[in-house]
Each structure stands twice: as C-alpha cells, then as structure tokens.
Amino acid sequence: MKKVLLFHAGQVQHYRIGVYNYLHAFLKKSGFELIIVSEGNQPGCSQEIKFPEIIRKFSFSSLNKVIKNHRPWAVILFINHRQSYFFPFLLYLRASGNKVITWTHGINLQDKASLTSRLAHHLEHTLCNRIILYSDSLKKYLLRSHCQKAYVANNTLNLLDFEPQKVDRQATLSRYNIKRQKNIVYSGRLTRRKRIQDLLSAFELIKDENVGLILLGPDDDKMLNKQFFQHPRIYYLGPVYGIGALEIIASSDICCIPGAVGLAIVDAMYCNLPLVTENVPHGPEFMYFKDGLTGYMVPEGDIASLAERLQLLLNNDELRLKMGEKAREEIMANGNIKRLARGFLECLESLEEGKLRRSSV
Predict the structure, then answer these.
(1) Which of 20, 38, 138, 272 could form a disulfide with 324 if both were Cys (CB 3.0 to 4.6 A apart)?
(2) Of 3.40.50.150, 1.10.3720.10, 3.30.470.20, 3.40.50.2000, which CATH number belongs to 164-334?
(3) Using only C-alpha atoms, what is the Rg of the chain?
C-alpha cells in the first residue's frame, strides 16, 4: 500500500465525510492508502467515519512532524494558500523529496481580478507535482505550462446510500409542521453572497397560500429578521445535515439558490428538483446546471423574473417533473462520486508512472 496523506485544513465538514469514506475505499482497491489529516470533524454528523484520520492543530511545525512520523508516498494539500504555514510547508515538502498534489479551484473565484491572488496560485501550481481541479472549466485559469499536470475530479457528494424515491413526503413535512402542499427549498448557509434577500423578496410576490418556503442552513449573516420568523409560509429549520436534510429536499418541489451556487446543487438535482437561480458568479459545481433543461436562470437582481419562474414551475407539474428528471440524470452521469474518485486515481497513477498525462475525466 502506498500511503497518501490528504491534509484538510480546519474541520472536515459533514458532507466531506461521506466523500472521504468512498474515496478511501476506492483508492485502497488500487493500492493507495488514503489517510485524512485534519483539525477534527464538524459536529452534528451522524455518518460513521470509515477512513483513517490524524487530528492535529495545523501549524508549520505540527505538519512537519506528521510527515516525519508517517513518511507518506504522496501528499494531497486541501489548504488555502492564505494560511501562514502553507507556503513554508509546501517548500519543506518539496525540499524533502515528497510528491505533492494540490486540490484546488485553481483561482480565487470570488476575486478573479486580484493579481496578488493569481500570482500566489501560479506559485502554488509551480511547486506542486500535480493539480486536482473541481471541474474541467477551471483549466482556463491555469498557465498553459501547468495544464499538462492538471487532473479533474468533478466536485460532488457521496449520495449512493440515499434513495429519494423512498422518502415518505407527507411524514417528513409533518415532522417539521410544514403544512403547505408545494414547497420551495433553499439549502446552504444563509449569506448575502447567496442572495437570500432576493429569494425572500421573490417569495413575497408569490401569493398562493398553498406554497411554502423551506430554509435549511445556519443564518451566518443574520439575514432573517423577526418579520420572516413570523411569516406563516416560511419555515426556517436551521442547520440540518445528512439524511435529515436530504429527506426535506426530496419532500420539496423546487430548489432556489439565487447566488453562489455550490454543492447544494448536487443534493437538489439528485433528489429530482429543478433549480432556479440568478446569472451571477457561481461555484464550479454550477457545471451541472443547464438553463431551460434542469432549471431556470434569471438576470441578476431581477426579483420579478425570479418569482415568475418559481410560479411557472409550481403551476406546471409536467414541466417541473420533466426538469427534475433531467436534473437527476445529469447528476447521475457527471456528478457521481465514482467520477470524483476516478479523477484522484488517475492523478495518483500518473505520479506512480512518473510521467504526465492528461485526465480523460
């Protein structure tokens, strides 16, 4: 077994635990032992941890000790280069002869114009032996000389054990005292970047008393005031993770995330829900969205159009179900966890062979 240490800065998020469980088992079949090094696991996750882990407070000295004690065959860095220890640790790894892979967007997607950030990313890519990207579209941000060592692992979630068609919709809605016949669901952190205010404003234009709005996730930016907590058709359920969140999503009818769509799109589309969003910068996971096929995209800040598209899907059952089926098909084809794992394996195998080759993912 070739020992591979994946350094995950901070706590491992609940949704990453399932990914690492699958990735560990998948790579083991090909002779790679994946060990996750992190600062612990996010509380509130009910999933069993099936991967070996090393928990440390991250610093330059503590990470060096992990390398010296475990002597890995290769290292994968899932660390933001703005961490003060990142470049010293990366330089130490290369100076000590370690094979290094960075798992990255390839650029700061929220600040693409920053020259300082771009230069830091280019330096990171130069120092690493290989690059794993979240999506193929991110290659455009790499220097041409770096593209030949870039591999793609479509960023996604491990949902293989969840079957949305088996969810008891009525029982799930009743559990949370949701009394509306049709529901729009939002999943993720409630932040300004997600344009939650646009969703709340659009929902105010939907007067149908049979339509509810379900909000899942922590209210990080304090977007919800007393008025919305008292709204009879808005259901704020707070942070709900794992199977609980998936059951709520599968019991809803439409997903709406106006801004900065990320991994929540995978949950929604896997559960046969079309997505309604705005034409604003999104995460690489937005590659799964197909306007007019798996949902609708409206102009930035166009509240009336956002409400109109939501109302159209709520009123037209045939259209909504057809888009939901296409959404599910897209995730099963391109957002399957097996596809992510193959990207990692191809990258590791290229290191094993000692030569560069382009990923077929």
Answers:
(1) 272
(2) 3.40.50.2000
(3) 21
